[in-house]
Design a protein that fits this description.
mainly alpha; globular; single chain
């Protein structure tokens, strides 16, 4: 096994060196090309997995610093990211649900309501996500802090755990559906994701506008259709071992009776969780962002003894995820800072000149969507590429409102491509229920389904509403 890992690592090094020393475009500086080579090599290494992901990112960060591609301050900048820390805090909060048993209690409640079939359980999670999405603008806080512990509790209640080798029993399916559902609900509401208000602001700066009501009205039909079909697609592509649980509701009710009334720590966990929800929903009015709220929530869990410091220190999945996610955020952000991403955008723009607006916009849309493989943040992607792509699309004759809607919705949907594509992605991937090959394969196939529904049905729906 050690020889195999070293051989894979050797392949990664060879690929990286080939890209590093290949002829670079004259329009960009050497360190932009070198950072691109390092980023591509890191992603390639993550796929081959010669070493754990955190170790691979540490290696990449050291190479970036030693070769002076980035300064030490730039290399470590990802660890300052509030999103990276929000991911870590979400792991700790979910630990509180598990330790107190509140997560299991909630899981059993969902089982009692939707537990006759595995599909029913997945739709229960999606319904919760849909209800919360307009009110909680942080998809990481919403999906990572609220939905993830419930999905994990459901999986564990059926004996589906990666540590036992039973992740495919039901947990893998629920985790994949829950995460993909977050990208869909994020697309449905202007307040469904942090990048959406940024996109609306950039739209206004360009001389156009999109309101909360227009966004929601345009997204409601394709969004609901996608939420209905997506679990069926995942069920076909990545089926759970356990498909029917006819006795689950009775079993769950029996377990709830055995657990008895809520205990002190469960009440504490529930109260702090409700406080977190309030802060996440109304944090903007109180000038408290989602990461600060999560930090305060963790502090309260420690103060009231719901969690001990040992629980925080030994939550290795959280710290592992923090290292690789922060590193990827840094590299993806730096690609924009050093000029590589703007250069790539300009090259795409130059290729579509002279085409009909329909063909040109199709190409622009696909490039915009799938270039998210190079981003670890929806917000960074929107900030780097949306303004230029919007103006080029309009300049080519695309109806402005149509271009805005397509870019707005795909800016959320593209988060489902990778295990680092949005805030909650590393939380779900870090749980160990879904391996990286399955994540990328299903993510790509679902992206095709999403685009067909949102562009196909969506275009018809928006035309019917008179939006373009």
């Amino acid at each position: 096994m050690k020889k195999k890992k070293l051989f894979l690592f050797f392949i990664v090094i060879v690929v990286g060196l080939c890209i590093w020393f290949s002829p670079q475009p004259q329009a960009i500086e050497p360190r932009a090309w070198h950072l691109f080579a390092l980023f591509i090599t890191t992603i390639f290494a993550i796929i081959l997995k010669p070493f754990p992901m955190g170790a691979l990112v540490i290696i990449s960060l050291s190479v970036a610093t030693l070769t002076r591609t980035l300064t030490l301050e730039e290399t470590l900048s990802g660890f300052h990211s509030s999103i990276a820390w929000l991911v870590v805090f979400a792991f700790f909060i979910s630990r509180g649900f598990i330790k107190t048993g509140l997560g299991s209690r909630i899981a059993y409640y969902f089982v009692s309501m939707f537990g006759k079939r595995t599909l029913g359980l997945s739709y229960g999670l999606l319904l919760s996500e849909l209800i919360l999405s307009p009110a909680i603008p942080s998809v990481t806080a919403r999906t990572g802090g609220v939905i993830y512990p419930i999905a994990q509790g459901l999986a564990k209640s059926f004996g589906s755990e990666p540590s036992l080798g039973t992740e495919r029993r039901i947990g893998s399916f629920l985790m994949k559906v829950a995460y993909q559902g977050s990208t869909i609900t994020s697309a449905m509401f202007l307040t469904g994701m942090a990048a959406n208000p940024l996109l609306a602001g950039l739209t206004q700066e360009a001389g156009y506008s999109i309101s909360w009501g227009t966004w929601a009205l345009a997204g409601i039909l394709p969004g609901i259709v996608t939420l209905i079909l997506m679990p069926l697609v995942v069920y076909k592509l990545y089926p759970p071992v356990l498909k029917e649980t006819p006795h689950a509701p009775e079993f769950a009710k029996k377990k709830l009776a055995e657990m008895g009334p809520l205990e002190k720590n469960e009440w504490m966990m529930l109260g702090i969780f409700i406080l977190l929800l309030i802060l996440w929903v109304f944090g903007g009015l109180l000038h408290i962002n989602a990461t600060v709220a999560a930090l305060a929530g963790l502090a309260l869990l420690l103060i009231f003894g719901v969690l001990e410091w040992h629980d925080v220190v030994t939550e290795h999945n959280a710290w592992d995820t923090f290292i690789w996610f922060a590193g990827l955020i840094m590299m993806a952000t730096s690609l924009n800072t050093v000029g590589f991403t703007p250069w790539l955008s300009e090259q795409v723009v130059g290729l579509v000149g002279g085409m009909s607006w329909q063909v040109a916009f199709l190409i622009l849309g696909l490039v915009y969507f799938y270039s998210h493989y190079f981003f670890a943040s929806n917000t960074a992607h929107v900030g780097a590429m949306y303004p230029a792509f919007l103006m080029v699309a309009i300049g080519l004759g695309t109806p402005p409102s149509y271009a805005i809607l397509i870019f707005a919705f795909t800016s959320s949907l593209m988060g489902g491509l990778t295990h680092y594509g949005s805030g909650p992605a590393p939380i779900f991937y870090g749980s160990g229920y879904i391996d990286i090959k399955a994540w990328w394969k299903i993510g790509f196939l679902l992206s095709v389904v999403n685009l067909i529904i949102w562009v196909g049905l969506g275009s018809f729906w928006w035309k019917l509403l008179g939006l373009w």
